[in-house]
Design brief:
Number of strands: 40
Largest sheet: 8 strands, mixed
Radius of gyration: 33 Å
Strand order of the largest sheet: 1-2-3-4-5-6-8-7
Strand content: 15-25%
Length: 951
Amino acid sequence: MQTSSDRHEYPAHWEADVVLRDGGTARIRPITVDDADRLVSFYEQVSDESKYYRFFAPYPRLSAKDVHRFTHHDFVDRVGLAATVGGEFIATVRYDRISADGRAASAPADEAEVAFLVQDAHQGRGVASALLEHIAAVARERGIRRFAAEVLPANNKMIKVFTDAGYTQKRSFEDGVVRLEFDLEPTDRSLAVQRAREQRAEARSVRRLLVPGSVAVVGVGRSPGGVGRSVLDNIRDAGFTGGLYAVNKAFPEDRKDLDGVPAHRSVREIEGPVDLAVVAVPVEHVLEVVTECGEHGVQGLVVVTAGYAESGPEGRERQRELVRHARTYGMRIIGPNAFGVINTAADVRLNASLAPEMPRPGRIGLFAQSGAIGIALLSRLHRRGGGVTGVTGVSTFVSSGNRADVSGNDVLQYWFDDPDTDVALMYLESIGNPRKFTRLARRTAAAKPLVVVQGAGSAPQGHAVRATRLPHATVSALLRQAGVIRVETITELVDTGLLLARQPLPNGPRVAIVGNSESLGLLTYDACLSEGLRPLAPLDLTTAATAGDFHRALSEALADEACDAVVVTAIPAVGEGSAEDAALAEALRSAAAAVPGKPVLVVHVELGGLAEALSAAMSTAPQVASKAPGTESGADRYRPAEGAPRPDTAEPEPAVTEVPAPEGGGLIPAFPAAERAVRALSEAVKYAQWRREAVDPGRVPEFEDIDEKGAAGLIGRLLARGQGLTLGVDDTCDLLGKYGVDVHRALPAPTPDAAAEAARTLGYPVALKATAPHLRHRADLGGVRLDLADEDQLRRAYAELGELFGTPEELRPVVQRMAPRGVDTVVRAVIDPAAGAVLSFGLAGAASQLLGDTAHRLVPVTDREAASLVRSIRTAPLLFGWRGSTPVDTPALEKLMLRVSRLVDDHPEVVAVTLEPVVVAAHGLSVLGASVRLAPPPARDDLGPRTLPVY
């Protein structure tokens, strides 16, 4: 790379893969002396006009001096970055540090001149915008705070790159040149611009995989059977609307088709573009196929081949090489070890998966990391009448396998503005980037429901996952804060998804219950109470109720302003036939359609044909594609998994059916158990409440008494002592005091005389505490004596502690001024390397330590979030006057948490804060113990330039 005379080693951490505006990828890396030939070749492919815009004069070729200048950098004052595809340059950017008078300079000068050059064939792909983000991050790292650029007025594209970036800038015009100056500190607008570009680019990259114009299946067997042949058959039988090709290097040279599908020995032989390649060759041949696809211009890959990271260390290295190789050509990968992808849109009809049947088109998007879970999920939904593969239907399905590249985050970006997806269901075994997932989930949930099942165990071997120190329950709580509907099982995933897909969100927790079974109504009532809903008294229509009785009762319940949702419980009478079932279904449909603003659910006990009647208006069997010329139908080609019954002969699983409403109305989901229906309704109620609150999330308050600069100076001096340290008592009190957090000081008392002196300093009454690790915060063990009014009481208490627990050296006693009686609580903040800064709250002692009754919020916390944090724990009633006790000062507690949130948000070097106990009294509060830990701040990838995960 660079010569020994360069001031810095090659900065490998500046290398990054990025997604461009059109969904393709490029690699950004520093330019070195080894790039001379690449630079010359790149420059030769740039138009004369682009060269003129770069150098302000005709500049047909680079001189040897130019090449030397543009390839020799010190990576401090002179830096050049290149965007590459296929190993060749497609764009370059460089900066040169300058002084105030525009001359070459070194630090401490903090301004640099920046210039770009983009190959004409790649202009309009967002390459310059991505390079600007990365060169700005590099400059900030090297102490540069401001860029200057001179641009010809006619170079509108480059002027737009700078002006659209969102940085604070100044613009001037002199000597026929536009001069732009802008600060490099990220602003709210620059971050918003960056994230909007990220969303468009990543959504586009997934769209290239889900909406291809042509597909090649590589590794198709010459005879029926095998993975490649099955995928090819599934694509063809689903009625894919684009071009389809079968590829196998073992095909005879004279073979032109395979069951009507054009056959080729190599992707290179295919005339015309190929958008998507499904790779099903043995693992040792995959890289060869990737090379062929890249050279042919294939846009994306679905790799179903196994034998990668899931198989051990050697497989993990093969997986890394696969991702690196694909990205070299600008391609993204679903997989490896993937089950495949499905898109049911009428103008696509893509089933590039191992699922032998095409799901019915619908409005629900499905994502599963695990292929096995994907199979089970599709199979279960396939069997259920009116399930997602029945009446409601699927929009898109992605099984990411080892998730080496495309992840749930990418699919969320696509679903966010996908007009064909109304509800997103995800099964996640791991979350590779919790901070980003939480951000994307919050934005998605504000527009459409996002239901997630999250595995609680360790991540599969094939997944690259950032380490998190947060417990699984904490991560789940943070997801809920972001609007994610967090459920525990696939059954709950489907139940909740069906309800949200076709019923309106409830306006509150009030639930009316009507039905013809008193027992079933009471079960539903109890289930509502268990889920925190507010059920009205069940209305029992008796077993003699007719369809008309149900219609009247449901209509009255929906019209009642005291009702937000209705659960209908129904058991068919013995001997009832299909006519009665159909009448009941029609009665429910027509009543619900008349008042469409409230959700309706049905709980039924299936004795006869009621479930079928509830969905009689349309078939619940999977839709079969019409036959293509010369092919078999999807039904003819259905091959269930070994040992699984066919859908039309399977023993029916307790059905989750749907009542098709008249045209323009919603579908009414029906459940075989009251608990399942109510659990789904409860999730809908909580999600609706989150949506209403998300409209006004509150604000992060400003505190006039905060000394941010003073705290920064203190932190800097303390960190100068070492890389990471837990502060002593005085430094802890000093730092917290700069943010308005007053800690009651505890004075050491190694002897009875020292204890008496400390008490005189603090003033009576005082408390005497043992602070040894095994006694700290354990008042139940007797290591604390309170309300000591004078020196005699203090000395007696000192002697008692010594008799019970040992010498002062073992006890580590301290004396502290008494605080007003109240409720003991604990406030914590921690910076997790994966999830970011998290604020936690609970009651001190067994409630939080033994029962895990702790609530969490992401920092920065708003005033509304602080209020909800206090009320989120199960033991919150103890703060609000439970059983006649005096309510405590929760507004003071909320302000304390807001101050702690500001501290860790303003100073990421503060990696942990614990306030314990915080005694909250009727008026005010007292912080009796505190600890703070400092460390160099972890990297904030959400504030840096856009980049794909390193693999």
